[in-house]
C-alpha cells in the first residue's frame, strides 16, 4: 500500500474524468468561468508549490496525481505541505489529472482570485514595474518573474493588459505571481501618477529614448524608480511616453532588431537593482 504524506488525511481518489467537479476546475482556464466563480486554476509543481507556500489561505483544493504520490518525489512534498496547512488534497488518476489540465504536470490547485494580491504603489517602494497594454500571457508572466527576481515588490498592469489569473501568465511567472503585488489600473496615467506621488522617478523603456541605458552619468540609477514598458507589438504611444520623466533605450550591440518584453524588463530592472545596491 502506498504510504501517504503526514498530516490530515488525503481525500478519496478521484477517478472519473467526466465528473462535474473535474469539469468545473478545468473550466477555470477560461476568463468568464474565473469571474463567475471568483477562482482560478494553478498548474504545475512550481506554481502550486509557491501558491501553497505564500498564499495558502486562498487555496480551496489541491489535486495531485496518485502515481506521482507513489514516487515520493517533489509532488509528495507539495502535498505534504498542503496537508500540514490544513488544505484539502485530492489524489487523482493520471486521466483525471489530464482532464483537469493538459499542463498539470501531475498537480493543480484551485485558489480564490484574491491570491493575486494587488497593493498600490507606496512611498518607500524603491523599484516598481509598470506594464502598459501587455497582451501576451507568456510575456506578462515572464515580466512578473523578472520583476520578482530583481527585487520588485509591486507590478502594475495598466490599460488593456492580459488577466493575471490566466493560466499561461501563472505558468510563465514560475510562481512569482504569488511573491509580489500585482495590481491592475484602468490607464497608464493612474500608474505613473501614483508612482510620482510615492516619490519615484518614472522611466519609460523605448527604442526612441533620448538616453541610452548604461551610459555613465546619463541616469541616476540609485533613486527610487518606476519603469514603464509598452505593448509587445507597438510599444508605447507618444502620449504614453510623455508621461515619463525620461525615455530610455536599451542598446543593441548585435544584429537583433529588438528584445522581447520579458528580456527588456529584466535588463532595465536589474540595471536599477544593481545601482540601488552599490
UniProtKB/TrEMBL annotation:
Keywords: Methyltransferase, Transferase. One of its GO terms (biological process) is methylation. Residues 41-117 form the RNA 2-O ribose methyltransferase substrate binding domain. One of its GO terms (cellular component) is cytoplasm. GO terms for molecular function: RNA binding; RNA methyltransferase activity. Pfam families: MRM3-like_sub_bind, SpoU_methylase. InterPro entries: Alpha/beta_knot_MTases, MRM3-like_sub_bind, Ribosomal_eL30-like_sf, rRNA_Methyltransferase, SpoU_MeTrfase, SpoU_subst-bd, tRNA_m1G_MTases_N. PANTHER family: RRNA METHYLTRANSFERASE 3, RRNA METHYLTRANSFERASE 3, MITOCHONDRIAL. Belongs to the class IV-like SAM-binding methyltransferase superfamily. RNA methyltransferase TrmH family. This is TrmH family RNA methyltransferase. It comes from Demequina lutea.
Amino acid at each position: 500500500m502506498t504510504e501517504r504524506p503526514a498530516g490530515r488525511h488525503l481525500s478519496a481518489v478521484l477517478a472519473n474524468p467526466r465528473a462535474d467537479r473535474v469539469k468545473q476546475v478545468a473550466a477555470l482556464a477560461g476568463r468568464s468561468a474565473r469571474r463567475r466563480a471568483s477562482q482560478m486554476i494553478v498548474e504545475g509543481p512550481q506554481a502550486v508549490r509557491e501558491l501553497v507556500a505564500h498564499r495558502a489561505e486562498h487555496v480551496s483544493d489541491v489535486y495531485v496525481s496518485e502515481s506521482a504520490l507513489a514516487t515520493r518525489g517533489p509532488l509528495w512534498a507539495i502535498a505534504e505541505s498542503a496537508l500540514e496547512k490544513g488544505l484539502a488534497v485530492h489524489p487523482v488518476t493520471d486521466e483525471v489529472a489530464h482532464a483537469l489540465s493538459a499542463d498539470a504536470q501531475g498537480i493543480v490547485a484551485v485558489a480564490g482570485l484574491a491570491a493575486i494580491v494587488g497593493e498600490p504603489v507606496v512611498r518607500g517602494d524603491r523599484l516598481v514595474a509598470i506594464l502598459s497594454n501587455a497582451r501576451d500571457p507568456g510575456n506578462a508572466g515572464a515580466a512578473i518573474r523578472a520583476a520578482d527576481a530583481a527585487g520588485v515588490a509591486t507590478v502594475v498592469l495598466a490599460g488593456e493588459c492580459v488577466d493575471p489569473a490566466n493560466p499561461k501568465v501563472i505558468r510563465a511567472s514560475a510562481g512569482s505571481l504569488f511573491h509580489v503585488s500585482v495590481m491592475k489600473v484602468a490607464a497608464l496615467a493612474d500608474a505613473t501618477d501614483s508612482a510620482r506621488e510615492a516619490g519615484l522617478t518614472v522611466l519609460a523603456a523605448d527604442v526612441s529614448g533620448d538616453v541610452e541605458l548604461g551610459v555613465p552619468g546619463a541616469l541616476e540609477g540609485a533613486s527610487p524608480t518606476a519603469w514603464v514598458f509598452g505593448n509587445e507589438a507597438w510599444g508605447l504611444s507618444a502620449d504614453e511616453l510623455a508621461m515619463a520623466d525620461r525615455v530610455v533605450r536599451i542598446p543593441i550591440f548585435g544584429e537583433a532588431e529588438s528584445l522581447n518584453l520579458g528580456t527588456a524588463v529584466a535588463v532595465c530592472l536589474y540595471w536599477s537593482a544593481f545601482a540601488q545596491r552599490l
